[in-house]
């Protein structure tokens, strides 16, 4: 019996236990011994870089979708053959946005070659309390169709005396770039030019879209404006905020709160939905790809989806998404539609650097915006993002 090492990002204890049980079942049926290594998200990137550099460690890993390109350029991954993809059900099995990332053309490798297998999928949404919308006289069917309707909904909530019309993280959070993307893409903007020749988040249409997003600061709670992800979520879950920008984890948490479960509504973000998630990769140093493929085949089956999702997000393959019991839930149906129509970040050259620089800049922008009574958001955006754009362009063109 072959031994395999499999690194996965840790989730909640119950979800981790479900995966342990599923991996145990896979080991029995496929005659492989899988050592599951649960690691925190916070240390995932440096650890995976170490694996890539030193050609030692796990055989198979779960990684963030935007990391793929970096590891391809490091020559750290094994590509998947057409025959292996067919064994999984073909590329058409997966959500288009997820599969496009897996086969995204790479500067240093052949275009169209799959370097990863989509596993979990995720998107960002607006979660809202129906009773507070009714209190403000807002028709939820007309509340979130575009950025202007969202702004009007928040204005009416504030006028109706809701102390926190909106909750979202304003301290450093990768979620912020996920949220901003919907405004940016809707306006016809983007973060980088195709081919990664230069950034484009400093263009007028992009800055205008980001200005719309940061103007939402006026609807955050007066006494709780500089907050992280857990605090933003808890303000909503505890009934202190009418809306929160989030994802599937809000729907899961609501299941344990009877007063919220029946009162929860979900709407798409205004604009183009962001789609993220995680992929499975086989490291180049592994000599056990045939055994790894048996495990991957098991993990992207519909019955596997029943075991581990939504604890691990949502399935990245269409049948797993459509046959899951959650498919009957109207709120999850909203997420499903977003996953099918949304857009992922590129996995190409230097995207990780671009993303990190923006993630570092956004909390500084929030600090300026929220510290002033009448902030000049356009000037603030230029002050912070223009220097970042110049430095990134020098790197890309160097």
Folded structure, characterized:
The structure is a single chain. This protein has 398 residues and is α/β, with parallel strands linked by helices. It has 2 domains: 2-122 and 275-341, 3-Layer(aba) Sandwich (D-Maltodextrin-Binding Protein, domain 2); 125-273 and 348-397, D-Maltodextrin-Binding Protein, domain 2. The protein is 47% helix and 14% strand. The chain contains 18 helices and 10 strands. It has helices at residues 13-30, 44-54, 68-73, 82-88, 96-102, 130-135, 147-159, 175-186, 204-214, 229-237, 248-254, 258-261, 289-299, 302-308, 318-323, 330-341, 351-370, 377-397; strands spanning 2-9, 32-39, 60-64, 117-123, 125-129, 166-167, 243-246, 264-268, 275-282, 314-315. The protein has a 6-stranded mixed β-sheet, with helices on both faces. The chain is globular and about 65 Å long.
Spell the H/E element sequence. EHEHEHHHEEHHEHHHEHHEEHHEHHHH
**CATH homologous superfamily name of the largest domain?**
Periplasmic binding protein-like II
Mean pLDDT: 94
The structure class reads alpha/beta
CATH architecture of the largest domain, by name, is 3-Layer(aba) Sandwich
Largest sheet: 6 strands, mixed
Instruction: Flag low-confidence runs.
Output: none
The largest sheet has its strands arranged as 2-1-3-9-4-10
Using only C-alpha atoms, the radius of gyration works out to 21 Å
Number of domains: 2
Task: Determine the fraction of residues in helical runs and give it as a percent range.
Answer: 40-55%
The CATH class name of the largest domain reads: Alpha Beta
Oligomeric status: single chain
| Number of strand elements | 10
Number of helices: 18
Principal-axis shape:
globular
Classify the beta-strand content into a percent band.
5-15%
Output the CATH topology of the largest domain: D-Maltodextrin-Binding Protein, domain 2
Distance between the termini: 49 Å
